[in-house]
Amino acid sequence: MAKELTEELSVAGQISPAEMTDLAADGFRSIICNRPDGEGADQPSFAEIAAAAAAAGLQARYVPITAGQVSDADAAAFATALAELPKPVLAYCRSGTRSTILWAMTEAGKRPADDIVNRARLAGYDVTGVMQRVAKGGAGDTDKPVASHDIVIIGGGAAGTAVAASLLRRAPDLDIAVIDPAETHYYQPGWTMVGGGIFSAESTAKSMASVLPGRVTWIKAAVASFSPETNSVLLEGCRAIRYNHLIVCPGIKLNWNGVEGLSETLGHNGVTSNYRYDLAPYTWDLVRNLKSGKAIFTQPPMPIKCAGAPQKAMYLSADHWLRTGHLKDIDVSFYNAGGVLFGVPEYVPALMNYVERYNAQLKFNHNLIAIDGPAQRAWFKKTGPDGATETVETSFDMIHVCPPQLAPDFIRASPLADSAGWIDVDHATLRHKRFANIYGLGDAACTPNAKTAAAARKQAPVVAENILCDKGRLTIVRAYDGYGSCPLTVERGKIVLAEFCYGGKVTPTFPRFVIDGMKPSRTAWLLKARLLPPIYWRAMLKGREWLAKPKDFA
């Protein structure tokens, strides 16, 4: 919903391409996007917004601002866009906060500070800290905490919600705050099933308010920076939050712009990805409607979340084509930037049986670097055994893309990051290597494990108990063994249940007579399709740690 700051400018949270006609009817003539592509799993790209805006007669401008890192140069770029575009203008980001901050900075010195603050407040935004910093030239006492909590958790996804629930199960009196600007919590392991026509997209989403434990304080904001020396984090809008313990688990960034041309064509021209909430249904539409042609599935260099997901999409798609009699007319290829089908060799024979069943062509050491959606062409960098590279071009009728991935920007630029940009934690205790009262878990941690919800389920009680040890409430330090699980959906109704820990050691949860992870199993399918979603919502996120008891630190 648009919130007016002036007659010429309103701000809003994320908008969709479908809203452009209504926005034009409401009198807007221009759109400014202040949200970088790939920031959220439910976020349309600016290219999609711009195309829909043009169709509705609106101009659109891209002024992307990293959450929590609004600079004077950003404000100048925003002011230029605002001056050049037809009025009135709607500026948007994730929540509207960045757009409001940019406006406040551009208006500083042009209108009274009280007027700026009051207009922002009426729209639902607090820019008091921003105006104080502007007045003091970026210095002063505005970094003093406006709130303090015993434990602060960055991120309300699977890892953040699970660790909050684990802590409160053990110590209900804890003062915990969760910082996350997102309104929606997603069960992302379900998106492969959405792309296979098994789950609905809506079944994988719930409001963040309904998922977070009732006893936590939810701070709906983005983190700008960390100050571990003062035990505080600075939020977007220049608000500082103090902590005694900090838990950092913001998830992973999907770098859609890491492939040339990808953002412009996602959701169109046969280009899709189950890694985005709104695109997983498009995958199923493409699969159902493809009767002949060339289908390509890609996997980028590691690390990525759910490393089996790119090939799961291939198996479920090919299974549908096989069942409907169309597979004989479809050329299926899997282009993998890596050199093996799966990183734990014990599971490869079962997977290869399905590769052969679907007559899928495996293209190892092929990394997607560019795509032309309208022409339905893709380019890969192929690396040979001697390290020499060449560019390979191919056509497609459908392409499922797994984007390259990296740690969030505000983590990579922080003192918490290691040399590769991930949260620098001990692989066993998950304690930060340099700051003893900081822990990290989930996809953004530097741990060399599979980045899955199953890993977060095992990590959460380890962090919870180790923090309680720090506080003197428990005495035994716990360790994470690197456990991860990847239910590989090789066909509709059967799954190869891969479970492993650090070093690729196979670590099955169930006896082989219940589920033999080396073979495709109907029982594993029932676990994935029927049991894991309620286990996620009603157990993992509620602190009920079924089969997740933490191990002692050796």
From TrEMBL:
Its cofactor is FAD. GO terms for biological process: sulfide oxidation, using sulfide:quinone oxidoreductase. Gene3D superfamilies: FAD/NAD(P)-binding domain (3.50.50.60), Protein tyrosine phosphatase superfamily (3.90.190.10). SUPFAM superfamilies: FAD/NAD(P)-binding domain. The keyword Transit peptide applies. GO terms for molecular function: FAD binding; hydrolase activity; quinone binding; sulfide:quinone oxidoreductase activity. Residues 149-269 form the FAD/NAD(P)-binding domain. Keywords: FAD, Flavoprotein, Oxidoreductase, Quinone, Transit peptide. It comes from the Bacteria. Residues 4-109 form the Beta-lactamase hydrolase-like protein phosphatase-like domain. This is Uncharacterized protein.
